[in-house]
Amino acid sequence: MVTITGPRGEMLHELPEGISVSEQDGRMVVERSDDSADQRRLHGVTRAHLANKVKGVSVGHEIVMIVQGKGYQAEVAGKVIDMQIGFSHRVVVELPRGVTAEVRPGQNQFTLVLGSNDRHLLGHLASTIYRMRPAEPYNLTGIRYEGRPIRRKTAKTAAAGA
Fold first, then answer.
1. Same domain membership, residue 50 and residue 69
2. In-domain check, residue 117
3. Sign of dihedral through CA atoms 13, 9, 57, 62?
4. Does 132 reside within a domain?
5. Among residues 11, 62, 90, 95, which is most buried (max CB within 10 A)?
6. Which residues contact 4 (CB under 8 A, 6 or more apart)?
């Protein structure tokens, strides 16, 4: 087990067999026992997980989602996000422990900012919210991640001269 502490808290990571971590000159060094393909894969994955946890306890992770549509709105009340996103009912999403949410209103859209120390938990929550109403390619109404392009489609036109 590796314990990572920082100003935003503490996280634990269990090391797979054959992978070791040592500290050299204030840096974490990940080493593997042999050069097999499985050990190389575990080495890279472990290094990435540890880097995400170090970033999480030092500055935290953030995912920004844009929710666009006529009449779409949301509010955060305690540990619950209450959204109106085009269904006949309101959608209520409960925030897991350690995740924060903020709603920034706009005209016919709002921005949902999710933050957490745990990148895995944050990504899972964001994908759950995204799957509720993914952005459609014609008018971009729905939920989309900020900074990720959506392949736009042109509107269909009537055939001339039938």
1. no
2. yes
3. positive
4. yes
5. 11
6. 10, 11, 12, 13, 50, 53, 54, 57
Q: Which two tokens stand for residue 129?
A: 């919210």
pTM summary value: 0.81
Average pLDDT value over all residues in the chain: 88
Cα-only R_g, the chain: 21
Say yes or no to pLDDT of 162 above 60. Answer: no
Number of domains composing the chain? 2
Give the model confidence (pLDDT) of 28-72 as tens digits: 888 888 888 988 899 999 999 999 998 999 999 999 999 998 888
- Give the Cα separation of 89 and 15 in Å (integer): 45
Distance CA 37, CA 50 (A): 20
**Sign of CA pseudo-dihedral 92, 93, 99, 104:** negative
Per the structure, the complete domain to which residue 42 belongs is given by 2-58
**Cα–Cα distance for residue pair 50/73, rounded to 1 Å:** 37
